[in-house]
Design a protein that fits this description.
The complex is a heterodimer of chains A (about 150) and B (about 150).
Chain A lengths: L7 H4 L2 E4 L2 E3 L3 E9 L6 E3 L10 E3 L9 E9 L4 H4 L10 E7 L5 E15 L8 E8 L5 E4 L2
Antiparallel strand pairs in A: 1-2, 1-7, 3-6, 4-5, 6-9, 7-8, 8-9, 8-10
Chain B lengths: L11 E5 L5 E2 L3 E9 L6 E3 L10 E3 L9 E9 L18 E7 L9 E17 L5 E8 L4 E3 L3
Antiparallel strand pairs in B: 1-2, 1-7, 3-6, 4-5, 6-9, 7-8, 8-9, 8-10
Classes of the chains: A mainly beta (about 150), B mainly beta (about 150).
């Protein structure tokens, strides 16, 4: 398949949480998936060794996988009606889906937590918002219809 | 040989999680950071009666393991899962990463790391600009630079 370049506009990204569209006016979405770090090196140097000796932690990487999805955009006067996001409670959970296009990739976070909502209204300027969603024990699931 | 300057335009990057190599499409940049163990620690060997501090190199040599971190930034595609498969790669899967400066070119360097993990994937989707996907791989040992010639 040829590489089809992707922008949020041409891809028609759709992001939903528990049935609510999020939100008209978005400008950028950043998905950060983190695995555990590389395996720690355990010091197994013993008396008589002529150099430090290390081995990979046999229990593997420390820490759990996690993911955050940050949505940045511009707020609307009727945001509650437009997106429903302002009616969502912080720390509420739902199924978060970020869809690149109708038959493109999509990321599903089951049990995503609505972690923060930050906005600053200025008298004469547009009002930016930042929404953050997270999963603390999983990196979500990528899938595609293709 | 005269120096042939290198740009990423001729480079390819592939990752094999054990199910066959996957070429990462839409390459924008790749950063290979290799770090050795560092300097040998200086141990304080000052004893009573000395008129100045005295140090000696740690006889066991430097501590720790060398580390490698490879960061690859890709121009994302709508069908990345099917195209470059960067979204199909599982976090913490260990595999073989190959960065080839120019495939099929004599004397072109190739970086091969046979046991390196995908530890982070950051997808940035701007509304009106190209989306990017940044993959970060880490390992506690160094990969090898080789040349086909």
């Amino acid at each position: 398949m040829a590489h089809e370049e992707y922008t949020g506009k041409s891809g028609g990204s759709l992001i939903t949480l528990g049935g609510a569209s999020i939100p008209t006016g978005w400008r950028q979405i950043v998905i950060t998936e983190r695995g555990g770090p590389a395996k720690a090196q355990l010091d197994v140097t013993t008396a008589g060794d002529s150099a430090y000796t290390y081995m990979d932690d046999p229990l593997g990487s420390q820490g759990a996988k996690s993911v955050t999805v940050q949505v940045e955009g511009l707020l609307s006067v009727t945001d509650h009606k437009d997106t429903g996001m302002l009616s969502k409670s912080l720390d509420s959970t739902g199924v978060l889906i970020v869809k690149k296009a109708t038959d493109g990739d999509w990321l599903t976070l089951t049990g995503a937590i609505f972690r923060s909502h930050e906005t600053e209204a200025t008298f004469g300027g547009l009002t930016p918002y930042t929404l953050t969603f997270a999963l603390d024990s999983s990196s979500g699931v990528w899938a595609t219809a293709v | 040989m005269a120096q042939v300057e290198f740009t990423g335009r001729s480079a390819t990057v592939s990752f094999d999680p054990g199910t066959g190599p996957v070429t990462l499409e839409g390459l924008l940049s790749g950063t290979i950071n290799q770090q050795g163990k560092g300097a040998t620690e200086q141990l304080d060997a000052t004893v009573w009666g000395d008129t100045a501090y005295t140090y000696m190199a740690d006889p066991l040599g430097p501590k720790g393991a060398p580390k490698a971190r490879v960061t690859v930034t890709l121009q994302d595609s709508v069908h990345a899962f099917a195209d470059g498969k960067q979204t199909a790669l599982a976090l913490n899967d260990s595999g073989t990463l190959v960065v080839d400066m120019a495939a099929g070119t004599a004397n072109a360097n190739t970086y091969t790391h046979t046991d390196i993990e995908l530890v982070e994937r950051v997808t940035t989707i701007p509304l009106t600009a190209l989306a990017t996907c940044q993959l970060t791989f880490e390992a506690n040992e160094l990969g090898a630079w080789t040349s086909p010639a």
